[in-house]
Amino acid sequence: MNHAAEQHTQQQQFRSVPLIDAVAQYYALKPQIDEAVLEVFASGNYILGPAVSRFEAAVADYCQVKHAIGVANGTDALLLTLDALGIGPGDEVITSPFTFFASAEVISQAGATPVFVDIRPDSYNLDTAKLEEAITPRTKAIIPVHVFGQMVDMDELMDIAWRYGIPVIEDACQALGASYKGKPAGSIGIAGCFSFFPTKNLGGCGDGGMIVTNDDDLAAKMRILRVHGSSPKYYHSMIGYNSRLDALQAAILQVKLPYLDGWNRRRRELSSLYSERLRDLPLRLPVEQDDRYATYHLYIIQTSRRNELIRFLNERGVASGIYYPIPLHKQEVYAHLHFGSFPEAEHASEGTMALPLYPEMSEDDQVYVLKTVRAFFIERGEAV
What we know:
The chain has 384 residues and is of the alpha/beta class. It has helices at 3-13, 22-28, 30-43, 50-63, 74-84, 102-109, 154-164, 216-225, 247-256, 260-278, 306-315, 343-351, 363-379; strands at 67-71, 92-95, 113-116, 139-143, 169-171, 179-180, 183-184, 191-195, 209-213, 292-293, 299-302, 352-355. It has two domains: 3-21 and 259-379, Aspartate Aminotransferase, domain 1; 27-258, Type I PLP-dependent aspartate aminotransferase-like (Major domain) (Aspartate Aminotransferase, domain 2), CATH 3.40.640.
C-alpha cells in the first residue's frame, strides 16, 4: 500500500467526536420541545408571563429556595445581584481568577474592583484558606465560583463571610444540580446565579439566566431591576436593566429540567470511566471531595503537553477545549490594576483542557477518545 492510500485508510478509521452535542439532546426531546415552543407562540405571551413563572417556580423548588428570578443570562444574574446589594464604586468584591471572565466583569460593570484569591490545585476552586487575607474594609461581597460543576468549600467560606458580615453570591453558572453536604448549589449564599447557555448542563436554545434566593426583599428588588427598575409599569423607582428570561427559553428549559438529574448522573458515569482509564497516564485528573456531589459540567485534565495533545486529538477527529487560557488577573483589561501573581491559577491556565463530555455520548465514542489520548502518550514513550 502506498503512503497516500495508507493515510486515506487511517483517516477512514477516525471518528468525529464533538466536545458537546446540543443537537443530539434536542432530537431526544424534539416532540416535547416543539410542543412547548408552539404553545408559547400561540399564547402571545413572549415576555415574562406564565411560561417564565412556571419555570421560576420549578427552579426554586429544585434548588430548595423561596424565590427564583429569571433574567436574560448568567452574567446579568450576577450583575443584578450586585446592584440589588448596593455594591458600586469604591467597593471590592472577592472572586476567583480561574473562571469565565463574567465573574469579574460584573464586578467592574457595577463600578467595584475585583479582588482575586488563588485556587486550589486539585479542584480549581477558590482556596478558602487564602480568603481571609484578601478581605479589607472595602470588601462588600464574595463571589465563589463552583467551577466545572464542583462546589467550593462552603462551610469555611460562609464562616469567614459571616464573621466579617460580607454577603456571598454563588456563581453556580456551571453547577446546577451540584451539592455541598446535601445543600443544592445556589442555596447557601444570600443568592445563587445560574446560566442556561446552550453548553450548560441545563442549556437552552439561546441565552438565559436565573437568580435564586431566600431573601424576600432582595428578590423583590431584583424583580424590579430586571424590568428597567419599574413597578408598576412606567413608574420607575430605580435605574434598572432590560434583563428578562425569554418565554420561549423558559418553555424549553421547563421541558428539560426533569431530565437534568439523569443527565448529571450520566456525566458522572462518563467522568468516572475517564478517570479509571486515564489514571496511569501523566495527567492531573479531576478530584471530587467526599462531601460534594459534582455535576461535571466539563471533564478537565491537566498536562504540560496540552497544545501537542490538542493538536493530536484534533487530527484524529476528537474535539477538545481550553478552560481557561488566561487567568483573569492577567487579562489585558485589568493590566492597570497590577494584581500580582496567583501561581496556582497561572499553572492551571497553562495546562488544563476539556475532553468530550455530554449525556448523549456513546460508549464507542468515549472508548475512541480514551484510545486516542493513550495513543498520544504511547507514541512519546510515556504509556503502555
